[in-house]
Structures are given as C-alpha cells and as structure tokens.
TrEMBL record, chains A, B:
<dbReference type="InterPro" id="IPR002933">
    <property type="entry name" value="Peptidase_M20"/>
</dbReference>
<dbReference type="Pfam" id="PF01546">
    <property type="entry name" value="Peptidase_M20"/>
</dbReference>
<dbReference type="InterPro" id="IPR010158">
    <property type="entry name" value="Amidase_Cbmase"/>
</dbReference>
<dbReference type="GO" id="GO:0016813">
    <property type="term" value="F:hydrolase activity, acting on carbon-nitrogen (but not peptide) bonds, in linear amidines"/>
</dbReference>
<keyword id="KW-0378">Hydrolase</keyword>
<dbReference type="InterPro" id="IPR036264">
    <property type="entry name" value="Bact_exopeptidase_dim_dom"/>
</dbReference>
<feature type="region of interest" description="Disordered">
    <location>
        <begin position="1"/>
        <end position="25"/>
    </location>
</feature>
<dbReference type="Pfam" id="PF07687">
    <property type="entry name" value="M20_dimer"/>
</dbReference>
<protein>
    <submittedName>
        <fullName>N-carbamoyl-L-amino acid hydrolase</fullName>
    </submittedName>
</protein>
<feature type="domain" description="Peptidase M20 dimerisation">
    <location>
        <begin position="227"/>
        <end position="326"/>
    </location>
</feature>
<comment type="similarity">
    <text>Belongs to the peptidase M20A family.</text>
</comment>
<dbReference type="InterPro" id="IPR011650">
    <property type="entry name" value="Peptidase_M20_dimer"/>
</dbReference>
Length: 438, 438
C-alpha cells in the first residue's frame, strides 16, 4: 500500500463518533482507541451517520452509489474498458454487535474504501468496474437474522420476511420502518438478477478471522476457500425425577449423568474426525433442586466440518454413541433429538481463491499465509451462490471478536488491505485476459 | 392387628377432605382413592382441619393433648405404672408437599393413632406412658425449612428463625402468624428440656421408604439404623466464551466439556465407594447460545453415604479428579467450589433398633425385613439427638414419593403399623425390665 498505515493506525471520523459506553474503557489498562469497541446496531442513528459518511467518501472518489430495497449500498467505480459487465465488488458490513469490536465487518468496508482511494491517488484504473458493498444488518443483532441482506440479495431470504423483522427491544420498529426513516429503502430490487437488482461480477471480503489459528501459527493472511458445514441439534434426555438420597444408582433413570456422558462422547468423536462439536446451552426443568434428579435434560450440539459428509458422519456416530449411553447406567434413559439448523459447507470460487493465493505469496510469502475454512458465517457465503467469491482473513488477537477488545494490529490491517487491493487487480487482469482470449 | 385393614384400605374423613386438584385424577387409569395425592401445606386451613380431627380422635381415646410453641401436638396416653417418666412417642407429620402423596408423614401419624386405638380396644396398657407426636411443617414446603419443628424441639433451629419463616407465596404471612391464626401457638416451650418443654422417652417413626430398595428386594419392613451423611457442593467451572465455529478444540477453554466430565467422574467415583453422587442443577449464563461456548458452567453435587468418612473421602477424590479434568482439554479451565450443606451421618439408638428388629423377625420373618439407612431427612433425625429413636420403613411403589401417585399397599401399611405397635410394646417392656433390674 502506498498510503502507509492509513488503515488501522488512527481512527477516522466515523470510527469514533459512535463511541461505546464508558465502562468498556476500564476493562483493560492502556487501551488504544481501536480497542475500545463499537456499538453500532443496524439502521440506528449511529448507523445512519456512518452510512452518510460512507456515501460522501465514495462520491468524493467519483463512484456511483446505488441503494437497493434492503438498504445495501453499492459504490461503483468505472473501469478503463467502460464495460457494462458487473463490477468486481469488495464487500462487508458497517453494523456491529451491541458490545462489538471495531474490526468485524468494518475492516472490510474501510479497507475497500482505502483500495479505491489508493487506486485514485495512483491514477490506477482497473479494466472492469470495481466497487464496494456495505451490506445491511449482517450481524442480525438488532433485527434478528444474520447475513440478512446478502441473504435477500441471494434469494435465500424472502424480502418481506426481512422487512418484517422487529427490533429485539422495540416490537413497534421493523427493519423496513427503519429503512424508511433513514431514507435507505432504495429503488432497485435487492437481488442478484441483472434485470431488476444490482448484480456483481465477483465478491471479495477482507475480514478478521474471529478465531486464533492465524495468530497461533504466526500467519498474516488466511486464504479462505469456503465455509464449514454445520448442523445444530437439540437433544433431550428423558430420565425420571427421583430423590438423590433414597434412589440407589442402580435404580436411577439419571438424565443428567447420561447428558454429561453424551457431551463428553460428542467431543471425543469430533476430535477423531477433526471436526468441531460444542454444547452452548444445557437446561434442566425449572423446578430442579440439589436433592432431586432432574426428570430431563436438554442440550444443544453444534457440529462443524469443512466437508458435509464429515458433518453427517459425525452426527451419525453421535447418535449411535448416545443410544449406547442411554442404556449404560441404572435403569437407563431415553432421548429425542431435533435438527434445528442444517447449513451445508460452502466452497468459494477457485478463481477468486487463486487470485488471493497469488497475491498473498507475493505480499507475505507462502510461509506467512495459509488456506483456511471460515468457521463463522459471512455475507460472502451468500454472494458465493451468485457470483465468484472468496475471502481474506487477517489475525485477530486471541481469536476474540464480538467484544470491545477485539483487535487486529495496524500492520495486519495494512497487509490485509494490500492483499484485497492486489487480489481485485489480479482478478480483474485475469478476467481481461480471459475476455481477450489470452 | 386386630382391626383388619383399618389402615390403608379406605381413607378416613381427613384423608379425603383436602382433595387435590382434579387434573391429578387423570394421570393414571383406575386410581384408588389412596393414589390421588394430597395437598395439605403446613398451617393452612386444610392442615387446621386435620389437626382438629386428630385432636378429637386422641381425646376420644383418653389422651392428654399438649401443644408447644411451634404447634407440635403431643398426645399422651397413661401407662399402667402411672410413671412420670417421659412417654414413648410415635411421631411423624400430617403436612404434605403441594403436590404430595397420602403416605409420606401421614402414615406415621395415622398408624400411631391406630396403635392407640388397638391397645384401647384390647384393654392393653403399656407400663409407661405412650403417645403420638404430630410435628409441624416437616416438609418445609410452605415455610421453607424442612423438619422445622422437630429441629426447634431439638435445639438445632432457633425458634425465632422458625417463627419468622415466610409463606413462599405470601411474604406477609409468617409461620408464627399462622400458628396464632389457627390457635396453635401453644403454651409450652418447643424443647426437649423437661423443665420447660415436652420431653420424650423414645421416638419411633413409621414412614414409607421413599426409595425402591424394599420393593426391589421383596421386603416388607425396613429397620432403619440411621440416616446417611450428606454434603452439598456447588461447583463453578470457569472457561472462556468463544465462537463454536472459529475456535479449534485445541484453543478452547471449554467449561461445558469440563463440567460434563466432572459429572461423569463423580458418578464413577461414588460407585466405587458405594456412595451416591447426584447433580440436580446445572446452569450456563443467561446469554448462552448454540454457537457460543459458555464462559462458565455451574452445577450442584449431592454426595451421600451412611459413614461420614466415606462422604469426606468421596469429596476428596472428586476434587482431585476435577483438578485433573481441568487441564485435560484444549487450554484448560479453572474451577471453584463451595460447601453449601454438611449434614453428618446419624446413628439411631441401638435399643430402639433392636426392638424393631425383634418384632420384624416375629411379624414377617428375617427374610422379609432388612436393616437400612435413611436417604432422606425425617423428624426422627432430630429427635435422635435427645431421646432414643429409630424408624420403620415400609415399601412405596417404585420408590415414588412427593407425588400424587405415591402408594403403599394396604397390606404393607398394616404390617408397618403392626411393627410400630409391637416395637413400642417391646421397648416399653424392655424399659420396665431394666427399671426393675431384670
């Protein structure tokens, strides 16, 4: 990057206007201004403020700005070919969690802006149009649907359902009413359909990893090839409530013991498959007491793996193990399970991934980058259904995100931004060569 | 028993006056009137009604009735010696859980009444005075302190603390205000002190087992030698919240996995020691979600064994195992624990136990009775601190109690009542022989 340290070193206006509550500042000693978090829920006044700033910035650069019916903002910079082909987009989101950080999503949009600024300052023109997307309500923290507007754009979420989402604290406020209030109910369809919506030629997203792998392996750039498949199960173990003092172990239907064994077994099985298994929630009936065995125990299971067939194999092994566990102790228990979410694995576009790989090798060398699979959901997961897409990850300290202390060093922000710029240029040049039959 | 089937076959007036809500009746097909439960919370109008009935019944038998300052009712029948020695008591309680059965406590008082009736009808007189105690608020279901008034009597609970207990649903109502309202704030001290309170020469309690052991081993009478020691611990496992999709197993501080392993380990350790270990409650933070590892997990542990040293040894092994588990997976976790309750084991009086053993051999034969240790708390645990005490258990179907379907067959009720009668007579005769130097 020619503009040294422009990203990450000092926050620009909009990064500090919506400051987080002051108690966050006491959490760590000597926090840098970039480590004090952000509370910018989608379509709040704070979000409207940063959107206005973003619109002004892209217009200063000479971009055309389009807003669709979900408030997604598309900034388009003409390429030298003056082609009508859909633009190569760099996209992410400017909304945050209520107690979020200053990198998740924000880095991807600010870096994209920096890419366009750098191109302009250097009088550099891509062959095809390039641009930026600010996706609305990616976090789903205020209107509870994550990757909400890229989902509508991709046809995976009906727009009426998205519009009808209610503010989690104020049921009188809907996503649509907030779009209208701020003037972001745009006049083009939220769709990848070139006839009615804003179609994209490619989608690159720079994002913090939100996990510890890059930091732990000493890499600066993750070349993200896709997103893990995951399944969410709810398991209910049915035993029988009984007095803890008068019921011998041999006479128990001990749902708590069986559920604990199931959680332990799920971890061991996942480990063997190099998969992830996690229990986030466990519940006993509200009348539970220290001296009563609970009648039933319910827990969640989150299974993840980059390959769908591994997710399925792990689930199958879980259920077999659970059946065995159900009859192991005392009088046994029974169990039911439901599949609450099934999100198949996503493979990003090989061309986009190769562009990132090529530039990462150039920027940091092969030893400082690595192929990765995203563990979390991102707008790119949806864009990849309708245009070539891939992501660039940069390290975040200790894997922490969705927290005020979320942090990515200025150096890593800059390296990621450089990779984003070069990947877009690489992809644009490859596209031009292909079009020219080279 | 000369009065065949008088106990258990058909409910008498007070057993049916306080009927339970009608929806209980639909739980099982063809419920006998004795299987439809009871809701008679301590010192309610329903309790006042059965107390009035009890007072009338014992007065019909010629008993003197004393009420102490906790509303404990002492009915005293003179013996042939006209001795001033404290009476041999048969005691239990007439209050129930809000959704309780018709045997827990009630059987012990009704059987005692039946014993006095049978003696009277047969013109039989014991040497020393015998009588019945109806202990107030044994369940602690309305005023939250179980074995409340035997506890005050034994000096283990300060009377002011007991008086100040508030109705769990109406904080304006105290145990004392209800004693006053119903005229049960008696004029003698609630104490075993012969100078001020109502002292007892012995205390026998017939009670349903509240566990499945008698039923499973085909016995009719349990000769209860004491009560298990138990300790209640709360364990808090501290991990770190993290995204389930982006945090490798090796980088986790997985409190849920560690807590599950601890529960599994506690069961295995208890089994080796022939002890009981149970987890009734487990909690994750309220912001838990399927795709976030909870920052911490809290669970209860209930450890029981008839010997205190075994309870302590088991606890020590638990804590060692927990320390090992804390460092087993990923980045490890830490844990804290608190000792919430420490109730040492209780050994009942050898003389009382031998009286029960002798009569059980006579009534059902040695193959149909067995020595037992009570797993639950009873008023006799407190009386045993101040007078020779022991208990007789009879089977209850499937070990179920504190539930409308709690059930003891008429035959077993009768056998238990017969054992109560004969144990009191045996104890009285042994006492007379000892007094006479035989």
């Amino acid at each position: 990057m020619s503009r040294e340290g422009a990203v990450g070193n000092k926050p620009k206006g909009p990064l500090s206007t919506t400051s987080t509550p002051s108690h966050f500042h006491n959490e760590r000693q000597l926090l840098a201004p970039t480590e004090t978090g952000m509370a910018r829920l989608s379509l709040t006044d704070a979000d409207a403020k940063v959107r206005k700033w973003f619109a002004e910035e892209v217009q200063k650069l000479g971009c055309a700005l389009s807003i669709d019916q979900m408030g997604n903002m598309f900034a388009r910079q003409s390429g030298s070919k003056k082609s009508s082909a859909p633009m190569i987009a760099m996209g992410s989101h400017l909304d945050t969690q209520p107690r979020g950080g200053r990198y998740d999503g924000i880095l991807g949009v600010i870096a994209a802006l920096e890419v366009l600024r750098t191109m302009k300052e250097n009088n550099f023109k891509t062959n095809y149009d390039v641009g930026i997307v600010n996706w609305t309500n990616e976090e789903g923290a205020r209107f509870p649907k994550s990757m909400c507007s890229s989902g509508v754009w991709a046809g995976a979420i009906p727009i009426q359902k998205a519009w009808d989402l209610r503010d989690i604290h104020d049921p009188n406020v809907t996503l649509r009413s907030e779009l209208e209030r701020h003037g972001y109910l745009g006049d083009i369809a939220c769709s990848s359909d070139p006839a009615t919506g804003f179609t994209l030629g490619a989608h690159f997203e720079l994002h913090i990893e939100q996990g510890p792998i890059l930091q732990e392996t000493g890499r600066s750039i993750g070349i993200v090839q896709g997103a893990q498949g995951y399944r969410w199960l709810t398991v209910t173990v049915k035993g029988k409530d009984a007095h803890t003092g008068t019921t011998p172990l041999s006479a128990r239907h001990d749902a708590m013991l069986a559920a604990s064994k199931m959680i332990v077994a799920s971890n061991a099985i996942a480990k063997r498959h190099d998969a992830l298994a996690s229990t986030g929630i466990i519940r006993v009936p509200s009348n539970a007491s220290t001296n009563t065995l609970p009648s039933d125990v319910t827990f969640t299971l989150d299974i993840r793996h980059p390959e769908d067939r591994a997710v399925h194999a792990v689930q199958e092994e879980f259920l077999k193990a659970f059946a065995t566990i159900s009859s192991e102790d005392g009088r046994g228990v029974s169990f039911d399970w439901t599949l609450d979410t099934d999100s198949p694995a996503v493979k990003f576009d090989q061309g986009c991934v190769e562009s990132i790989k090529a530039v990462a090798d150039h920027i940091v060398g092969p030893g400082k980058s690595m192929y990765m699979t995203s563990g979390a959901g991102h707008d790119t997961v949806y864009t990849s259904k309708h245009c070539p897409s891939a992501m660039i990850f940069v390290p975040c300290r200790d894997g922490v995100s969705h927290h005020p202390t979320e942090y990515c060093t200025p150096e890593d922000c800059a390296l990621g931004t450089q990779a984003l710029l070069e990947a877009v240029v690489h992809y644009d040049q490859t596209r031009a060569k292909t079009a020219n039959g080279i």
